[in-house]
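ping. complex inputs:
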Amino acid sequence: MPEITFLPSSIVIDAPPGTELLEAARRAGVEIDTPCGAKGTCGRCIVRVVDGDVESDSLGVLPNTAVVEGYVLACKTRVQDSPITVETPEIAARSGGQFGDGDETYLVRRELLPTKWEYGPLAVKWLLQVASPQPEDGMSDIDRLTRAIQRQWGKLEVVYPIRIIRETADVLRASEGQATVTLVLDEWKLNVIRIEPGDQTTRHYAIAVDVGTTTVAVQLINLTVAQIVATQSAYNDQVACGLDVISRIDYAGRPGGLEGLRTRVLETINRLLTELVRNRGIALEEITNAVVSANTTMTHLLLGLKPDFIRLAPYTPTVLETPYVTADEVGLNINPDSWICFSPSIGSYVGGDITAGLLCTDIAAGTDELCLFIDIGTNGELVIGNNDFLISCACSAGPAFEGGGIGCGMRAAIGAIERVEVDAETGACEYWTIGNAPPRGICGSGMIAVIANLFTAGWLDPAGKLDTTRHSPNIEVKGKQARYIIAPADRSATGEPVAISEMDIENIIRAKAAIFSACAVLLKQVGVGIEDLARIYVAGGFGRYLDLEKAITLGLIPDIERHRFQFIGNASLMGSYMVVVSQDYRQRQLDLARRMTYVDLSNYPGYMEEYMGAMFLPHTHAELFPTVSAQLAER
Amino acid sequence: MPEITFLPSSIVIDAPPGTELLEAARRAGVEIDTPCGAKGTCGRCIVRVVDGDVESDSLGVLPNTAVVEGYVLACKTRVQDSPITVETPEIAARSGGQFGDGDETYLVRRELLPTKWEYGPLAVKWLLQVASPQPEDGMSDIDRLTRAIQRQWGKLEVVYPIRIIRETADVLRASEGQATVTLVLDEWKLNVIRIEPGDQTTRHYAIAVDVGTTTVAVQLINLTVAQIVATQSAYNDQVACGLDVISRIDYAGRPGGLEGLRTRVLETINRLLTELVRNRGIALEEITNAVVSANTTMTHLLLGLKPDFIRLAPYTPTVLETPYVTADEVGLNINPDSWICFSPSIGSYVGGDITAGLLCTDIAAGTDELCLFIDIGTNGELVIGNNDFLISCACSAGPAFEGGGIGCGMRAAIGAIERVEVDAETGACEYWTIGNAPPRGICGSGMIAVIANLFTAGWLDPAGKLDTTRHSPNIEVKGKQARYIIAPADRSATGEPVAISEMDIENIIRAKAAIFSACAVLLKQVGVGIEDLARIYVAGGFGRYLDLEKAITLGLIPDIERHRFQFIGNASLMGSYMVVVSQDYRQRQLDLARRMTYVDLSNYPGYMEEYMGAMFLPHTHAELFPTVSAQLAER
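pong. complex structure:
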């Protein structure tokens, strides 16, 4: 059978001639998006055959220029009787658009990560030598196992789920009494959650999970070395049931709605999990802990809890500090007796994603300096404080920065336009995509870049309207709506132009206005000026990098000294990783959560005014953005 | 619709004309056996129409004498358009052939039962007033619930299964914060296992379960008054997979065998449970604790544990003191988060049924006097000891005393011949059935009575052969085998004679020989004589009463002063009841189990000789049975 080599992972598999490339990729554990259901219409399963021959029907959908370069649709391409090498979107997809596999993985400062002295996961693995069964000593298999555990751990009570009891007889007899147990030490009890014959102490895995309203990311962690093995992300399957938390809460109220939402997000996570372990020689049962960080609504939906009271005064959710539940109870497809740790929420609109994200900041390290944390997702959350106080608030930004509700919007995956430069004279542009692939859409960082650039180049006015009085080959007018073409149809992977319309721009402006006005009101509420902030952390899933200048030009974040900013990417996922590898960090997170207070911005008298003022580029009050104003004046 | 009144329960239901009586009984929650699958052939679903008219096809199967008295087959009888009153086998079936509903329920001495000072079930119910949700107080529903629980119980950690978390939001809002929680207090934690709106403290149920190799009994207990509501018993569905524990262990080794056995016994228990709650206005979810007593093999099979090592040297089972598991884990159809308590086993062949049964004796009350406990089931187990020492042993008796492996054998249910008197002259007999119904078969106490009577009347020799040299209308010879007809075909409910063959008699002799020789060897091993025993407790499911004289004549139990004997019936079930209502008794049981030792009789040099000696009526050594010998000499 011909060999298929997938780049960049260099995974090699054999596949009989005639095998569909998409199927071969799946068998090899290589993730490829197929939103159209492999019908050959969406163009998202694009891959590049860099060596060898294939039989492909991609021609009708992909532009000729792409086909010439070897790009094909994986769902419409079949292996022939010769070896091939295929370049896939794997890196970007696996890294959730945020992290590569190398050192640049960490947007978070190294000194904030757990040190080896702080290493201590919830579930630990121990090698035991269990005494062999003796006639008439009155000891059962479980008695002997308990005694072996207590010899190492002291006389704590040992607790066994039924699955473990069922496996014990065979395991104790398989390797002459040598067995590996995975234990969760709960203050008073030793909970056995897995038992294996022989020495399996080097195979010890956990996952960190970030459940966003729009995007879900799962990270596989090798606990023996506290290292990230791989990360996968995808849109939350719940997106089909509404774009923001309020519409999800509405949907949950329908007959079967809550269970439907629970199933959808579980399927998303479990699908990502399957991809993560595939071809890595890791079994799902070897994953014995998960830390899940999610906003309060997502936490409720994942646990199957009625979210109604999150929305109804006095806004009391069922859980804030979620008790431990097992993987089996939740429905996570890992070792069923694993204890699942949810990052604690603060209130109905400040959730576990924020208490996880804060671990990536100096606030968690106990700084005296005043810090601001801004998490930009479908909901925007802000936290201000230091070692003395912590105040949080929330606003609704919508899914625009994650590609939601935007015509050509997409997640930061291969083929996403992540950077754009506009020529001030002609209005033409140059663009760069993730993976240098033919463009399939535009991600958050690309949208920020193109809008900021069009604005500074004078092709977009402060209200977000394109200049249609001058001619530019990239601006197209249809009726009353104009749109800006970034990549024309013949250069795009989908056969349609990648463009951004005035309606898309308005969505982005609404989103940035929500964030900026929340920030302004929070500062007023606390009674500090922007200049009092030692550091501003910006978290979010825009793309691999947030272009700070462009974000300030847009008016998304305040126009202050650049060195005070730090972009920390998907901080919720990174914080979850920290909790996975360190119980000290879990405690730190609980402490943060317990001392944090929440303010409801919607009750603040000047909030609406602030929001309306922020609905311009960069802002109605130009003096708030001095460097942007100076740049515009130079033009 | 015509009314149907079922006696003796006086349950009344309406049923349209044409309804099958069996179906009506089921709807009314009245248990009727139908081993033939309601085909009208086995005659076991016999009931008596005491008032009103029915349409019945019973004539072909039931003897005319029975039909004249109003007996019909419930599966072949239909309701007409007029009210009827039906007498059913309910009492005997419900009471497992042991206990009626009145005061005579307790074969156990009253002073051995828990007093009200010792009352304390594992799961307790508390009424709480939970604070109403407050805006921005930072407390979730679970936080408010936890605080309310801790106000009453102190600052212990409160643990919630996910099902409870899911129900909390609605329950706390249903009755202005008034809620009833069911809790299990574990040394260090408060485990919430049920939450209900309002005050539900008067509805609090548990079950005691005795799982025998042949028979399963389930007892429903009202915990608010520590009273037995009802008891149901049935053959263990596993009987189809082998009659004794060894053949069950073999069966478990087949592909799917273990799961098949687990499912069968669970289905037996769950079916009895359904019958118990039916028409009592009790929901299965209201049952929040179960105590299960079973021999070691039955415990393993119910938990889905491989039983292989029970049988293989060095005979080490997986569990002796089974950790708590939940109803959901086990598959018991009660409140899924209930903690299930298994009575502790001593070894591979002395199980939880024995540690439960011992609670019905002075041994558990800490007597200094030497006591012997004999439990006669498919396996026979014996315990000798007092406050100073406890030694147990086991032997295999087979299912004969429970009706298994006996041609006309049956459980002690309605229609079972429980008492027989034989006329020495003619060899004819008189018999009495449970419920005074037409005879359907013969139960343990009936078999003991008929064999003992035939022997003392001279119709049976010490080797178990019927005297065919003299004529008796009741003795029938077919080939080399003779049989004794107790009830002729025209008086039986089945249309077939109820008889006992020489092969049946041999089975009973084998069973009694196993028990008696075990008893003899145990006494020798301990170095005491039978006269040193202050009390001998005999437990077992023969029927409602064990006729002591007859059992001694048979050579089943030693021939000593009668006042030293006490028949305690299904002591395993009664002991389980005690543990259900009292955690003191649970502790007492664990203490008994921990200090009991086990001796393997099969290794004892003289055991086989003892067994062979006991294979005669009453015994080869007639001097061991002085009163029986004296009686025979008088003849």
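Residues 366 and 387 of chain A are 5 Å apart (CA to CA).
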